[in-house]
């Protein structure tokens, strides 16, 4: 799941990436805005999910995927779009333009 919070006075968007923690021991976010470096997501017991919150520039789009349990690639069902990644799968797209 992706939540976006827009600010009237800033040229950035707060984006929260959230992944269901059912049967998941570990989760990392891999994204172009993180130079495709594995970035651990925080486990939130209350919501039974993994979360990662960041701020991204407004009016842009970024590619990302989740890596679960160090071996399984997972896409976000609520991504704004998908694009082939050259490895036989799709990357997710998150857009930061306000609709």
Automatic annotation (TrEMBL):
<dbReference type="InterPro" id="IPR013783">
    <property type="entry name" value="Ig-like_fold"/>
</dbReference>
<keyword id="KW-0808">Transferase</keyword>
<dbReference type="GO" id="GO:0003844">
    <property type="term" value="F:1,4-alpha-glucan branching enzyme activity"/>
</dbReference>
<keyword id="KW-0328">Glycosyltransferase</keyword>
<protein>
    <submittedName>
        <fullName>1,4-alpha-glucan branching enzyme</fullName>
        <ecNumber>2.4.1.18</ecNumber>
    </submittedName>
</protein>
<dbReference type="InterPro" id="IPR014756">
    <property type="entry name" value="Ig_E-set"/>
</dbReference>
